[in-house]
Amino acid sequence: MSNKVSSNEEKQLLKALSNMKETVILEEDKRDKKLYATVEYPISLEDTLSKKTKAELDTIRKFYGLQGLSALKKAQLIEVLIESIVNQMESFLESIDAERMQVINKILQNGGYYAFTDLTHQKISYFRESGIVATGSINGERVLYIPADLVEQLKALCESTDIKQAVKQNTELLKITKGIIFYYGAVSYNELQSMIEKLLKKPVNLLMYLELLLDRRVYDSEIIFKDGYVQHDELEDLDKLKKEHKMRPHIGFYPFTKEQLFKASEPGYIDQTASYQQLVQYMVTHYPMKKSEAENIVGEIVFLIKIGKQFGEILLYLQEYIDFQDADEVNAFMNPVMTLVNHTKQWHLKGYAPKEIRKPNTNPTAVLATPDSSNIIDIKSRQKKVGRNELCPCGSGKKYKKCCGK
Questions:
Q1: Structure confidence by residue, pLDDT tens digits, 8-37
Q2: pLDDT at 147 over 70
Q3: CA distance 327 to 17
Q4: Per-residue pLDDT tens over the stretch 304-358
Q5: Which InterPro entries match (predicted)?
Q6: CA angle (111, 113, 119) in 5-degree steps
Q7: Rounded to whole angstroms, how far apart are CA atoms 145 and 334?
Q8: Fewer Cβ within 10 Å of end Cβ, the chain: N or C?
Q9: pTM of the full predicted structure?
């Protein structure tokens, strides 16, 4: 059966993608018109809540765990929510981290509203659901705003030593957690608690800690909960990873320092080892590309190795960017790739690199499975694929690996 796409099929596919993109755009426009209706600032909390639908008010009610109020009429529910929001602002601030506190402070420092351009829809929804922050258009700009009658109280709370200390502790816990799942892929609740307590040298309340992670999960989805485990959002098969970990009872999890985990928690972090630099230099020397482009490609290869992708999948990824001429060229390229594999910390090895756990005097061949021939594109055809880090062709605005490439 031919893998080639006919001209007619290609046109139909492009038309379908175009229609899909148009649908996404129309849905986003409809949503945005509702979220960013014109607001005259200053506006009170009561007036802000009055602009919301009953369903939106119920969402805020659930955010604060208020039960038995679903039968209330809208006006009655608004009265209850005003009291709850005012009384629980301190608890809300004590439960967030530095990133979310920065959003609150920017709004307060700008006179009650601020035009954010770097917040995802999910993050904006989180703040809206708190009832403390709302969205609207002020002076023609789409903004997040805090109702005027909450501003002074919030300013005072944000300057509180207790609040600042709570935010600092939350930030530290979340960074360590993200660093842990960055290197291990997934760990059980008990393992995670033990790791945290060892790093911080103090006991940690597991329930309160998991509530902190769950709240962050609502904010940005970086942390996944499944079957008693906390896992990385790119982990595809938790059961397989659990089996891989159990197959290596003779080694514990790699003992990362708190500083190492902090670094790994940063968005886009890559451990730029000597083997990473070597492959970057190889690509710049042998192919017409800038160093920044080579770094992006090698960074993705590091991630593919870390999460356990096979040789064939790495080659598939490379063929998105490099037109290999023959098998000899592929083999020459894979030599520095194999070195990179040996020096890359991997999920199935509990955060170790193969070189760190290999017995002395053993063959230095990298721990990488043989590719399935059905997964490799013919070198001569060089059919162009959508890169994992490129925007998805469906028009969602997300990276391909986060959308249709899952």
A1: 766 666 656 555 544 444 455 556 678 899
A2: yes
A3: 35
A4: 999 999 888 999 999 999 999 999 999 999 999 999 999 999 999 999 999 998 7
A5: SEC_C_motif
A6: 140
A7: 53
A8: N
A9: 0.81
Q: Which residues of 97-129 are buried (b: 16+ CB within 10 A; e: fewer)?
A: beebbebbbebbeeebbbeeeeeeeebbbbbbb
Cα(58)–Cα(67) distance, integer angstroms: 10
Structure tokens at 283: 């690509």
What span, in angstroms and rounded, lies between the C-alpha atoms of 388 and 386? 6
Tokens matching residue 157: 């709370």
